[in-house]
Amino acid sequence: MELLKKLDAQLRALDEQSLIRVRKTVETPCGPRVIVDGRPMLAFCSNDYLGLAAHPAIAAALQEGAARYGTGSGASHLISGHSRAHVLLEERLAAFESAYLVEARALSFCTGYMANLAVITGLASVDRNTEIFSEALNHASLIDGARLARTSVKVYPHADVEALAVLLEQSSATNKIVVTDSVFSMDGDLAPLPALLALCERHNAWLIVDDAHGFGTLGENGHGALEHFRLRSPNLVYMGTLGKAAGVGGAFVAAHKTVIETLIQRARPYIFTTAAPPVLAHALLTSLDIIEGEEGRHRRSRLAALVAQWQDGLTLRRWQPLASQTAIQPIVIGRNDETMHAAAALYEQGIWVGGIRPPTVPAGTARLRVTFSAAHTTPEVAQLIAALNQLERT
Ligand code: PMP
Protein backbone atom coordinates (compact mmCIF):
# COMPACT_ATOMS: atom_id res chain seq x y z
CA MET A 1 0.00 0.00 0.00
CA GLU A 2 1.24 3.47 -0.95
CA LEU A 3 0.81 4.91 2.56
CA LEU A 4 2.85 2.14 4.18
CA LYS A 5 5.59 2.30 1.53
CA LYS A 6 6.28 5.91 2.48
CA LEU A 7 6.66 4.98 6.15
CA ASP A 8 8.88 2.02 5.25
CA ALA A 9 11.18 4.25 3.20
CA GLN A 10 11.53 6.67 6.11
CA LEU A 11 12.29 3.87 8.56
CA ARG A 12 14.95 2.50 6.19
CA ALA A 13 16.52 5.97 5.95
CA LEU A 14 16.68 6.17 9.75
CA ASP A 15 18.31 2.76 9.86
CA GLU A 16 20.96 3.79 7.32
CA GLN A 17 21.94 6.72 9.59
CA SER A 18 22.20 4.45 12.67
CA LEU A 19 19.17 6.29 14.04
CA ILE A 20 16.73 3.43 14.53
CA ARG A 21 15.72 3.11 18.18
CA VAL A 22 15.06 -0.32 19.60
CA ARG A 23 13.38 -1.28 22.84
CA LYS A 24 14.88 -3.99 24.98
CA THR A 25 12.63 -5.98 27.26
CA VAL A 26 13.44 -6.10 30.97
CA GLU A 27 12.14 -9.19 32.74
CA THR A 28 13.07 -8.24 36.30
CA PRO A 29 12.56 -5.27 38.63
CA CYS A 30 14.58 -2.18 37.73
CA GLY A 31 18.05 -2.22 39.31
CA PRO A 32 21.75 -2.64 38.59
CA ARG A 33 21.28 -6.37 37.89
CA VAL A 34 18.52 -7.09 35.42
CA ILE A 35 17.50 -9.80 32.99
CA VAL A 36 17.12 -8.24 29.55
CA ASP A 37 15.62 -10.33 26.76
CA GLY A 38 16.64 -13.41 28.75
CA ARG A 39 20.24 -12.26 29.46
CA PRO A 40 21.68 -11.11 32.79
CA MET A 41 22.98 -7.56 32.44
CA LEU A 42 24.66 -4.96 34.61
CA ALA A 43 22.72 -1.76 33.86
CA PHE A 44 23.98 1.83 33.93
CA CYS A 45 21.11 3.42 32.07
CA SER A 46 18.14 3.94 34.37
CA ASN A 47 17.18 7.12 36.21
CA ASP A 48 16.55 5.14 39.40
CA TYR A 49 19.24 7.23 41.06
CA LEU A 50 18.55 6.22 44.64
CA GLY A 51 17.76 2.58 43.89
CA LEU A 52 14.17 2.94 45.11
CA ALA A 53 12.41 1.44 42.06
CA ALA A 54 12.41 -2.01 43.66
CA HIS A 55 12.39 -0.98 47.33
CA PRO A 56 10.43 -3.48 49.48
CA ALA A 57 8.86 -0.80 51.70
CA ILE A 58 7.52 1.07 48.66
CA ALA A 59 6.26 -2.18 47.11
CA ALA A 60 4.49 -2.97 50.40
CA ALA A 61 2.94 0.52 50.41
CA LEU A 62 1.70 -0.12 46.89
CA GLN A 63 -0.09 -3.27 48.04
CA GLU A 64 -1.55 -1.50 51.04
CA GLY A 65 -2.62 1.36 48.75
CA ALA A 66 -4.35 -1.04 46.37
CA ALA A 67 -6.29 -2.52 49.27
CA ARG A 68 -7.29 0.93 50.48
CA TYR A 69 -7.89 2.80 47.21
CA GLY A 70 -8.31 0.16 44.50
CA THR A 71 -6.45 0.35 41.23
CA GLY A 72 -7.81 3.20 39.15
CA SER A 73 -8.90 6.76 39.86
CA GLY A 74 -11.84 6.47 37.47
CA ALA A 75 -11.92 10.09 36.31
CA SER A 76 -10.03 13.34 35.95
CA HIS A 77 -9.18 15.34 39.08
CA LEU A 78 -11.90 17.93 38.52
CA ILE A 79 -14.63 15.32 38.07
CA SER A 80 -14.28 12.54 40.65
CA GLY A 81 -10.72 11.20 40.32
CA HIS A 82 -9.10 13.33 43.03
CA SER A 83 -8.57 10.95 45.93
CA ARG A 84 -7.47 11.40 49.54
CA ALA A 85 -4.16 9.82 48.48
CA HIS A 86 -3.56 12.65 45.97
CA VAL A 87 -4.38 15.24 48.64
CA LEU A 88 -1.91 13.71 51.09
CA LEU A 89 0.77 13.46 48.42
CA GLU A 90 0.32 17.07 47.37
CA GLU A 91 0.47 18.27 50.98
CA ARG A 92 3.65 16.29 51.54
CA LEU A 93 5.24 17.60 48.32
CA ALA A 94 4.33 21.19 49.19
CA ALA A 95 6.04 20.68 52.57
CA PHE A 96 9.11 19.31 50.76
CA GLU A 97 9.51 22.51 48.77
CA SER A 98 8.05 24.98 51.29
CA ALA A 99 11.41 26.43 52.39
CA TYR A 100 12.21 27.55 48.84
CA LEU A 101 8.84 28.82 47.65
CA VAL A 102 6.52 31.44 49.09
CA GLU A 103 3.15 30.08 50.30
CA ALA A 104 3.87 26.77 48.60
CA ARG A 105 1.23 24.47 47.23
CA ALA A 106 1.76 21.40 45.02
CA LEU A 107 -0.17 19.75 42.21
CA SER A 108 0.39 16.14 41.17
CA PHE A 109 0.50 14.87 37.59
CA CYS A 110 0.62 11.50 35.82
CA THR A 111 4.00 12.24 34.22
CA GLY A 112 6.65 14.93 34.07
CA TYR A 113 5.95 15.35 30.39
CA MET A 114 2.39 16.39 31.16
CA ALA A 115 3.41 18.55 34.10
CA ASN A 116 5.71 20.52 31.82
CA LEU A 117 3.04 20.95 29.17
CA ALA A 118 0.64 22.11 31.88
CA VAL A 119 2.87 24.54 33.70
CA ILE A 120 4.10 26.32 30.57
CA THR A 121 0.75 26.52 28.78
CA GLY A 122 -1.04 27.38 32.01
CA LEU A 123 1.24 30.28 32.91
CA ALA A 124 1.34 31.50 29.30
CA SER A 125 -2.45 31.45 28.99
CA VAL A 126 -3.02 34.31 31.42
CA ASP A 127 -1.66 37.03 29.12
CA ARG A 128 -1.76 37.49 25.32
CA ASN A 129 1.55 39.34 25.49
CA THR A 130 3.64 36.41 26.75
CA GLU A 131 7.20 35.57 25.78
CA ILE A 132 8.94 32.33 26.71
CA PHE A 133 12.72 32.14 27.12
CA SER A 134 13.90 28.58 26.76
CA GLU A 135 17.41 27.19 27.46
CA ALA A 136 18.99 25.53 24.42
CA LEU A 137 19.43 22.10 26.04
CA ASN A 138 15.99 21.89 27.60
CA HIS A 139 14.17 18.57 27.69
CA ALA A 140 11.76 17.77 24.86
CA SER A 141 8.76 18.15 27.17
CA LEU A 142 9.68 21.78 27.91
CA ILE A 143 10.20 22.45 24.21
CA ASP A 144 6.81 20.90 23.45
CA GLY A 145 5.18 22.89 26.27
CA ALA A 146 6.56 26.12 24.80
CA ARG A 147 5.27 25.15 21.33
CA LEU A 148 1.86 24.29 22.70
CA ALA A 149 1.67 27.70 24.38
CA ARG A 150 1.36 29.29 20.89
CA THR A 151 3.33 32.36 21.82
CA SER A 152 6.75 33.85 21.07
CA VAL A 153 9.64 31.58 22.14
CA LYS A 154 13.26 32.75 22.35
CA VAL A 155 15.95 30.09 22.81
CA TYR A 156 19.04 31.24 24.74
CA PRO A 157 22.39 29.40 24.48
CA HIS A 158 23.28 26.77 27.07
CA ALA A 159 24.03 28.28 30.51
CA ASP A 160 24.46 31.74 28.95
CA VAL A 161 23.05 34.13 31.55
CA GLU A 162 24.37 37.17 29.66
CA ALA A 163 22.54 36.20 26.49
CA LEU A 164 19.34 35.68 28.46
CA ALA A 165 19.80 39.10 30.09
CA VAL A 166 19.94 40.73 26.65
CA LEU A 167 16.80 38.89 25.50
CA LEU A 168 14.88 39.87 28.62
CA GLU A 169 16.04 43.47 28.24
CA GLN A 170 14.79 43.58 24.65
CA SER A 171 11.44 41.98 25.38
CA SER A 172 8.30 44.08 25.60
CA ALA A 173 6.19 41.15 26.83
CA THR A 174 4.09 41.73 29.92
CA ASN A 175 4.34 38.05 30.90
CA LYS A 176 7.90 36.70 30.73
CA ILE A 177 8.60 33.04 31.44
CA VAL A 178 12.10 31.60 31.66
CA VAL A 179 12.22 27.81 31.41
CA THR A 180 15.17 25.58 32.26
CA ASP A 181 16.22 22.09 33.28
CA SER A 182 18.09 22.17 36.60
CA VAL A 183 20.18 19.09 35.78
CA PHE A 184 20.54 18.73 32.01
CA SER A 185 19.32 15.26 31.20
CA MET A 186 21.85 14.38 28.51
CA ASP A 187 24.82 16.38 29.88
CA GLY A 188 24.46 16.06 33.63
CA ASP A 189 25.56 19.61 34.40
CA LEU A 190 23.62 22.08 36.55
CA ALA A 191 21.93 25.24 35.30
CA PRO A 192 23.22 28.47 36.91
CA LEU A 193 19.98 28.79 38.87
CA PRO A 194 21.03 31.55 41.32
CA ALA A 195 22.03 33.87 38.45
CA LEU A 196 18.92 32.94 36.46
CA LEU A 197 16.68 33.65 39.43
CA ALA A 198 18.32 37.02 40.11
CA LEU A 199 17.73 37.93 36.47
CA CYS A 200 14.10 36.81 36.60
CA GLU A 201 13.46 38.82 39.74
CA ARG A 202 15.00 41.90 38.10
CA HIS A 203 12.77 41.49 35.03
CA ASN A 204 9.66 40.39 36.86
CA ALA A 205 9.78 37.03 35.06
CA TRP A 206 8.74 33.55 36.15
CA LEU A 207 11.49 30.95 36.45
CA ILE A 208 10.20 27.45 35.72
CA VAL A 209 12.72 24.88 36.94
CA ASP A 210 12.45 21.30 35.66
CA ASP A 211 14.17 19.29 38.39
CA ALA A 212 13.41 15.84 36.95
CA HIS A 213 16.96 14.69 37.65
CA GLY A 214 17.58 16.71 40.80
CA PHE A 215 14.55 15.86 42.93
CA GLY A 216 15.60 13.25 45.50
CA THR A 217 19.28 13.44 44.62
CA LEU A 218 20.25 17.09 45.22
CA GLY A 219 20.26 18.90 48.55
CA GLU A 220 20.96 17.68 52.06
CA ASN A 221 17.36 16.45 52.40
CA GLY A 222 16.86 15.40 48.79
CA HIS A 223 14.49 18.32 48.18
CA GLY A 224 16.29 18.97 44.91
CA ALA A 225 17.88 21.86 43.06
CA LEU A 226 16.22 24.67 45.06
CA GLU A 227 17.61 23.23 48.28
CA HIS A 228 21.00 22.61 46.66
CA PHE A 229 21.32 26.27 45.66
CA ARG A 230 19.43 27.57 48.74
CA LEU A 231 16.99 29.58 46.65
CA ARG A 232 13.73 31.14 47.74
CA SER A 233 11.48 33.31 45.65
CA PRO A 234 7.85 33.89 44.66
CA ASN A 235 9.05 33.87 41.02
CA LEU A 236 10.02 30.19 41.23
CA VAL A 237 7.83 27.49 39.71
CA TYR A 238 9.22 24.04 40.46
CA MET A 239 8.58 20.79 38.56
CA GLY A 240 9.80 17.51 40.04
CA THR A 241 9.31 14.00 38.69
CA LEU A 242 8.49 10.95 40.75
CA GLY A 243 9.49 8.15 38.37
CA LYS A 244 13.24 8.71 38.64
CA ALA A 245 14.86 9.10 42.09
CA ALA A 246 11.47 8.59 43.79
CA GLY A 247 11.19 5.17 42.17
CA VAL A 248 7.47 5.12 41.33
CA GLY A 249 6.04 7.41 38.65
CA GLY A 250 4.27 10.71 38.17
CA ALA A 251 5.34 14.28 38.75
CA PHE A 252 4.36 17.49 40.50
CA VAL A 253 4.49 21.23 40.21
CA ALA A 254 5.12 23.26 43.36
CA ALA A 255 4.76 27.02 43.44
CA HIS A 256 2.93 29.86 45.17
CA LYS A 257 -0.65 28.77 45.88
CA THR A 258 -2.00 31.28 43.35
CA VAL A 259 0.08 29.72 40.58
CA ILE A 260 -1.24 26.28 41.49
CA GLU A 261 -4.85 27.48 41.55
CA THR A 262 -4.26 29.04 38.12
CA LEU A 263 -3.03 25.68 36.78
CA ILE A 264 -6.02 23.86 38.22
CA GLN A 265 -8.36 26.31 36.50
CA ARG A 266 -6.51 26.79 33.20
CA ALA A 267 -3.96 24.05 32.39
CA ARG A 268 -5.52 21.71 29.83
CA PRO A 269 -2.96 18.88 30.33
CA TYR A 270 -4.05 18.88 33.98
CA ILE A 271 -7.77 19.20 33.43
CA PHE A 272 -8.45 16.84 30.54
CA THR A 273 -6.83 13.60 31.64
CA THR A 274 -7.64 10.80 34.05
CA ALA A 275 -6.00 11.23 37.46
CA ALA A 276 -3.11 8.84 38.17
CA PRO A 277 -4.12 5.75 40.15
CA PRO A 278 -4.32 6.85 43.82
CA VAL A 279 -2.35 3.75 44.77
CA LEU A 280 0.72 5.38 43.22
CA ALA A 281 0.22 8.52 45.28
CA HIS A 282 -0.07 6.37 48.40
CA ALA A 283 3.16 4.48 47.64
CA LEU A 284 4.94 7.76 46.95
CA LEU A 285 4.36 8.85 50.55
CA THR A 286 6.70 6.04 51.64
CA SER A 287 9.15 6.98 48.93
CA LEU A 288 9.22 10.59 50.17
CA ASP A 289 9.78 9.42 53.75
CA ILE A 290 12.80 7.46 52.56
CA ILE A 291 14.17 10.35 50.48
CA GLU A 292 13.94 12.83 53.35
CA GLY A 293 15.12 10.46 56.07
CA GLU A 294 18.39 8.89 57.14
CA GLU A 295 18.18 6.23 54.46
CA GLY A 296 17.88 8.84 51.72
CA ARG A 297 20.87 10.72 53.10
CA HIS A 298 22.86 7.51 53.12
CA ARG A 299 21.83 6.67 49.56
CA ARG A 300 22.79 10.14 48.29
CA SER A 301 26.25 9.92 49.83
CA ARG A 302 26.68 6.42 48.39
CA LEU A 303 25.77 7.76 44.95
CA ALA A 304 28.29 10.60 45.30
CA ALA A 305 31.01 8.09 46.26
CA LEU A 306 30.30 5.98 43.16
CA VAL A 307 30.46 9.06 40.91
CA ALA A 308 33.81 10.00 42.49
CA GLN A 309 35.10 6.46 41.91
CA TRP A 310 34.06 6.70 38.26
CA GLN A 311 35.72 10.07 37.72
CA ASP A 312 38.95 8.89 39.36
CA GLY A 313 39.11 5.68 37.36
CA LEU A 314 38.45 6.79 33.78
CA THR A 315 41.52 7.18 31.59
CA LEU A 316 39.91 8.01 28.24
CA ARG A 317 41.85 9.92 25.59
CA ARG A 318 39.67 10.26 22.51
CA TRP A 319 36.22 9.99 23.99
CA GLN A 320 35.21 12.92 26.11
CA PRO A 321 33.58 12.54 29.52
CA LEU A 322 31.51 15.65 30.25
CA ALA A 323 32.12 17.65 33.41
CA SER A 324 29.22 16.65 35.64
CA GLN A 325 28.83 16.28 39.39
CA THR A 326 25.50 14.48 39.15
CA ALA A 327 24.53 10.85 38.63
CA ILE A 328 24.41 11.52 34.87
CA GLN A 329 27.91 10.99 33.48
CA PRO A 330 27.95 11.15 29.69
CA ILE A 331 30.87 10.29 27.43
CA VAL A 332 30.75 12.12 24.11
CA ILE A 333 31.95 9.96 21.23
CA GLY A 334 30.63 12.09 18.36
CA ARG A 335 29.57 9.84 15.52
CA ASN A 336 26.28 7.95 15.70
CA ASP A 337 27.72 4.68 14.39
CA GLU A 338 30.78 4.72 16.66
CA THR A 339 28.57 5.46 19.65
CA MET A 340 26.20 2.62 18.85
CA HIS A 341 29.12 0.25 18.24
CA ALA A 342 30.56 1.15 21.64
CA ALA A 343 27.18 0.57 23.31
CA ALA A 344 26.85 -2.77 21.46
CA ALA A 345 30.38 -3.86 22.46
CA LEU A 346 29.61 -3.12 26.12
CA TYR A 347 26.32 -4.96 25.80
CA GLU A 348 28.20 -8.01 24.48
CA GLN A 349 30.17 -7.96 27.73
CA GLY A 350 26.97 -7.83 29.77
CA ILE A 351 27.07 -4.08 30.48
CA TRP A 352 24.06 -2.01 29.48
CA VAL A 353 24.67 1.67 28.77
CA GLY A 354 22.42 3.86 26.65
CA GLY A 355 23.68 5.28 23.36
CA ILE A 356 22.14 8.72 22.77
CA ARG A 357 21.92 10.16 19.26
CA PRO A 358 20.32 13.13 17.53
CA PRO A 359 17.75 14.54 17.76
CA THR A 360 17.99 13.94 21.52
CA VAL A 361 21.47 15.56 21.41
CA PRO A 362 22.96 17.90 18.77
CA ALA A 363 24.38 16.26 15.61
CA GLY A 364 28.01 15.21 16.01
CA THR A 365 27.72 14.82 19.80
CA ALA A 366 26.33 11.29 20.06
CA ARG A 367 27.25 9.86 23.43
CA LEU A 368 27.08 7.09 25.94
CA ARG A 369 24.84 8.22 28.77
CA VAL A 370 26.10 6.49 31.89
CA THR A 371 23.89 6.85 34.94
CA PHE A 372 24.62 5.68 38.44
CA SER A 373 22.36 4.48 41.20
CA ALA A 374 22.95 4.19 44.93
CA ALA A 375 22.19 0.50 44.40
CA HIS A 376 25.37 -0.03 42.34
CA THR A 377 28.36 -1.54 44.13
CA THR A 378 32.00 -0.45 44.00
CA PRO A 379 33.06 -3.60 42.06
CA GLU A 380 30.26 -3.03 39.54
CA VAL A 381 31.46 0.51 38.87
CA ALA A 382 35.05 -0.80 38.62
CA GLN A 383 33.85 -3.30 36.00
CA LEU A 384 32.31 -0.52 33.92
CA ILE A 385 35.42 1.66 34.18
CA ALA A 386 37.71 -1.20 33.09
CA ALA A 387 35.44 -2.10 30.19
CA LEU A 388 35.29 1.49 28.89
CA ASN A 389 39.00 2.21 29.28
CA GLN A 390 39.72 -1.00 27.39
CA LEU A 391 37.09 -0.43 24.71
CA GLU A 392 38.34 3.00 23.74
CA ARG A 393 41.77 1.56 22.95
CA THR A 394 40.49 -1.21 20.69
N1 PMP B 1 12.05 16.63 32.21
C1 PMP B 1 13.25 16.05 32.07
C2 PMP B 1 14.48 16.88 32.19
C3 PMP B 1 13.33 14.66 31.83
O1 PMP B 1 14.51 14.07 31.66
C4 PMP B 1 12.14 13.91 31.75
C5 PMP B 1 12.12 12.42 31.53
N2 PMP B 1 13.09 11.86 30.78
C6 PMP B 1 10.92 14.57 31.88
C7 PMP B 1 10.91 15.93 32.12
C8 PMP B 1 9.62 13.86 31.74
O2 PMP B 1 9.31 13.23 32.92
P1 PMP B 1 8.41 11.90 32.87
O3 PMP B 1 9.33 10.80 32.46
O4 PMP B 1 7.88 11.76 34.25
O5 PMP B 1 7.34 12.13 31.86
TrEMBL record:
Family: Belongs to the class-II pyridoxal-phosphate-dependent aminotransferase family. BioF subfamily.
SUPFAM superfamilies tied to this protein: PLP-dependent transferases
Assembly mode: Homodimer.
EC number(s) given by UniProt: 2.3.1.47
Pathway this chain belongs to: Cofactor biosynthesis; biotin biosynthesis
Residues bearing PTM N6-(pyridoxal phosphate)lysine: K244
GO molecular function: 8-amino-7-oxononanoate synthase activity; pyridoxal phosphate binding
Protein name in UniProt: 8-amino-7-oxononanoate synthase
UniProt: substrate binding residues: R21, H139, T360
Pfam family, one: Aminotran_1_2
Domain of life: Bacteria
Residues that bind pyridoxal 5'-phosphate: G112, Y113, S185, H213, T241
Keywords for the protein's UniProt record, in alphabetical order: Acyltransferase, Biotin biosynthesis, Pyridoxal phosphate, Transferase
Ranges where the Aminotransferase class I/classII large domain occurs: 40-388
GO-annotated biological processes: biotin biosynthetic process
Cofactor: pyridoxal 5'-phosphate
Top class in the EC scheme: transferase
Reactions it catalyzes: 6-carboxyhexanoyl-[ACP] + L-alanine + H(+) = (8S)-8-amino-7-oxononanoate + holo-[ACP] + CO2
Function: Catalyzes the decarboxylative condensation of pimeloyl-[acyl-carrier protein] and L-alanine to produce 8-amino-7-oxononanoate (AON), [acyl-carrier protein], and carbon dioxide.
